[in-house]
Specification:
Immunoglobulin-like; mainly beta; 32 strands
Length: 529
């Protein structure tokens, strides 16, 4: 393997309206998920049992590949990391999982300290992938006696706008948390503009903050004004927030210092003698569909500019949010004819929703001029997001009444500030509740949060908090947030934070089957039994 694969940082999410973006080809993409270990604290020479799923998040078949395990002093795979074991991974279709297990042995001469077991999907590069940078999962392990150390992480990251014009300034904020069991010395928080979610030498530093020393368990708020230079080329970027950017603090976990927030930079020319393509009257033929079913979409592409537009392509994607990025799933396309000024073209397509998806809110994204055939006045208005729900179809829940004049409350956006949360600490969860029905909700309602091993609400799920939601008129939404405590006795691995809308059933709704939203998290345990 010529190019080392690096650990892909977890992404924060934000709510976006209409944006412009270029999407990558939809091919195979292997990632490692649901990693569990028999123990994450071991002595030199001790054997650990590790299990995981290898998932194909791409849009095409991934052939047979090999998963390899390495031992490392950091979360980055390089030539110095000792090889431990391997698994053969079967061919995987889109969204399919391959369950893998292996016994790995801590090298006998390892000094006490903090290390990682690296699980590397497609180590031998047998599969051509959409993203070659997300193949490594780093599992923290402690060898010998664990020393008290600091652990700096970021929470409550706020970027107020999803789109910014080159030359503009953005006011951002975050909170630096010391989740370790020792004090952290003064450090530096740096902010970067990056073409991807990984910090490297090509990123442009925008600003920095000096972080005061933090006691174990303490937090400190930080804010900055970040200016995007006028020379920045329009396109999709990330704002990187990097705690302890100069690596002056020795930490339990050096892999959780970065949060990447997607943002779009535009180079619009609002007064240029140019065409401008937009999608209007966009609609889906259903608001609730089952994974694997078909969904029809219709729209009209209009040239609202002042010059003719050449032929272009309209692409359709499936997304967990309203932001078009490389993680979205390509579904279909339409060829759009050349359009004179003020001319329009009606377009429609049938979309097959992939199987194996969790229930909850999703978006169909319409990407106008998706391959940039047309130079436009405004490149920032080319994406339209249509919200729908994957779940039990109409009639699957006896309480659903799709033809009635009623409110319909559901979570339309939900995200966590960090996908990894230590047992015994608090997660930071935010969401938006919207009334998508055809009648205002008279009653205020209660939003309840639960910790669950799967994405379905059941009697075994653990209650972790609530929010009061005001009565919502037609089309109104309410932003909610909570910091639920993850119980200290929680097992490590994959969990879900469940959000239950109208948890006490005060409001009779069009759909009662779309009231549960699941947000995945990974629970980390420092001293598992």
């Amino acid at each position: 393997m010529n190019i080392p694969k690096t650990l892909f940082a977890a992404l924060a999410f934000c709510t976006v309206g209409t944006i412009n973006a270029q999407a990558s080809l939809s091919i195979a993409d292997l990632v490692v998920t649901d990693v569990l270990a028999s123990n994450t604290q071991a002595d030199p020479g001790e054997q650990l049992a590790v299990s995981c799923n290898v998932k194909n998040e791409g849009g095409q078949l991934a052939g047979i590949s090999r998963l390899k395990y390495y031992f490392s002093t950091d979360a980055i795979l390089d030539g110095t990391d000792p090889y431990l074991n391997y698994d053969n991974v079967v061919a995987l279709g889109p969204s399919e999982l391959g369950a893998e297990t292996a016994n790995v042995r801590v090298p006998a001469t390892t000094p006490d300290g903090s290390y990682f077991v690296l699980l590397v999907a497609d180590y031998d590069d047998d599969v051509a992938e959409e993203d070659e940078t997300n193949n490594v999962f780093a599992l923290p392990v402690t060898v010998g006696q664990s020393l008290p150390l600091a652990d700096l992480t970021l929470s409550a990251v706020q970027v107020p706008v999803p789109t910014v014009s080159a030359g503009d300034t953005i006011a951002v904020s975050t909170v630096v948390d010391n989740l370790g069991d020792a004090a952290a010395a003064a450090a530096t928080l740096k902010y970067y503009l990056s073409a991807d979610a990984i910090r490297d030498g090509s990123d442009k530093q925008l600003s920095y903050d000096k972080i005061d020393g933090l006691a174990a368990g303490a937090s400190g708020p930080e804010d900055a004004a970040l200016r995007v230079t006028t020379a920045t080329v329009g396109g999709n970027y990330y704002l990187l927030f990097v705690a302890d950017a100069d690596d002056v603090v020795v930490e339990h976990d050096e892999s959780n210092n970065l949060v990447a927030v997607p943002i779009v930079v535009t180079q619009d020319d609002a007064t240029g003698i140019l065409p401008d393509l937009v999608a209007t009257g966009s609609a889906l033929d259903a608001q609730l569909v089952a994974a694997g079913d078909k969904l029809a979409v219709s729209t009209t592409i209009e040239n609202v500019g002042v010059a003719p537009a050449a032929a272009s392509r309209l692409r359709y994607y499936l997304s967990v949010d309203a932001l078009l990025d490389a993680g979205d799933t390509y579904l279909n396309y339409d060829a759009v004819a050349a359009l004179d000024v003020q001319a329009s073209s009606a377009e429609n397509a049938n979309l097959t929703i992939p199987t194996g998806l969790s229930s909850g809110p999703y978006h169909v994204l319409l990407s106008v001029d998706s391959v940039a055939d047309v130079v436009e006045r405004l490149e920032s208005n080319n994406v339209v997001a249509l919200l729908f729900t994957i779940g039990t179809p109409s009639g699957g829940d006896p309480a659903d009444d799709p033809g009635a004049t009623k409110p319909d409350l559901m979570v339309t956006q939900a995200w966590v500030d960090s996908l990894q949360v230590r047992a015994g600490t608090r997660a930071s969860l935010s969401c938006e509740v919207e009334n998508l029905g055809n009648l205002g909700a008279i009653e205020a309602t209660k939003l309840k949060y639960y910790l669950s091993r799967d994405d379905q609400y059941g009697p075994g799920d653990r209650y972790v908090g609530y929010d009061n939601v005001p009565a919502l008129g037609l089309g109104e939404l309410s932003a909610e947030s909570v910091t639920p405590m993850i119980p200290a006795d929680s097992a490590g691995g994959s969990w879900f934070l469940l959000i239950l809308v109208d948890a006490t059933d005060l409001v009779a709704e069009t759909f009662e089957s779309n009231n549960v939203t699941a947000v995945p998290i990974d629970v980390v345990i420092d001293h598992p039994s």
